Amino acid sequence: MVLYEYVTKEQLAGFDRYKYSAVDTNPLSVYVMHPFWNFLVKFLPTWLAPNLITFTGFMFLVLNFLMLAFYDYDFTASSAGNQHVASWVWVAAGIFNFLAYTLDGVDGKQARRTNSSTPLGELFDHGLDSWACIFFVATVYSIFGRGESGVAVGTLYYLLWVVLFSFILSHWEKYNTGILFLPWGYDISQGTISLVYLVTAVVGVETWYQPVIWNLLYRDLFTFMIIACSFSVTLPMSLYNVLKAYRSNTLKHSSLYEAFLPFLSPVLLFVLSTAWVIFSPSKILELQPRMYYLMVGTAFANVTCKLIVCQMSNTRCQPLTWLLLPMTAVVLLSITGVFTNETLLLYLWTSAVILTHIHYGISVVQQLSNHFNIFAFSLKKPNQD
């Protein structure tokens, strides 16, 4: 039984015609990680469903987020004078992050190895990846925190948006070109993040207080790397690939409006969430940064998943995500002072966003599972004893 049929008949027909097409030119991925994953996948049992591998990897990132939320809920533990997070937590975070990264690389290889590749598997993988952005960004933030030598919560908010837009660029490319160009920054960032967690466990967070060179602090390097990777690598490559398709007359959407339509909902989400940050009477981002990041990241994942469905089914992206309508009301209630307890409002709205996204995800997985006559987390067939 499907909770709700989010995927239209036209989209289901599009999934039937779907063929996976991706390009990965990252040297780290091609020459190091893929051979490593090809070696590891041989040890996995052939009855293990690829989607179960994907979900397990995602849950390692959620576990990291929850673990750091317990020990450093408001991102102050790494500040000078405060009780720091124990070293074993950073060791666990490093291991869990690398396991998540590894399982994310192995799942597709297990699908091909067991001859169980389906459009559902790709959608499930990329859908969870879109939600994973908030979990690893917030967890990394605990290394530096929000103290004098840390990163301000407002700065981290905008850095989060840089990461989110970098992620959606790849799927915008595919929406317009039919080819998924895998970003270079992902493999580099995941390997670096895992290593930084382990180094932090050994040297302590106090090390990150020191300047790298002259007056350049590690927090400044952290900020610079995120921005530089996005604006000097990810964005130019995305624009180049779309422009190349346009010049070769292989662009899927002829008008600029249709080509850039997928950005409308993400931009409106950015405007709404930023308006709440700027005009909040109680400075909600300062009060509840973790919950605010989680709300924004989950809402963004919901918007992105709908784009992924459209690009995989070769259907037109809808201009607006309905989730933005109640969010507009929430933001207005907050900034006008009608609802005075902003913290309560944020918790209620975040809960609603999470439940909405989970409902959407379960419904889509059920729909596609029924459509392709498969189980999402088992290689057995539904009519198989």
Automatic annotation (TrEMBL):
Subcellular location: Membrane
Transmembrane parts of this sequence: 52-73, 85-103, 123-144, 150-170, 221-243, 255-279, 291-309, 321-340, 346-365
InterPro entries associated with the record: CDP-OH_P_trans, CDP-OH_PTrfase_TM_dom, CDP_ALCOHOL_P_TRANSF_CS, CHOPT
UniProt pathway annotation: Phospholipid metabolism
Principal location class: membrane
Keyword Transcription regulation: no
This protein's UniProt keywords: Lipid biosynthesis, Lipid metabolism, Membrane, Phospholipid biosynthesis, Phospholipid metabolism, Transferase, Transmembrane, Transmembrane helix
Pfam families noted in UniProt: CDP-OH_P_transf (PF01066)
Family label: Belongs to the CDP-alcohol phosphatidyltransferase class-I family.
Protein name per UniProt: Selenoprotein I
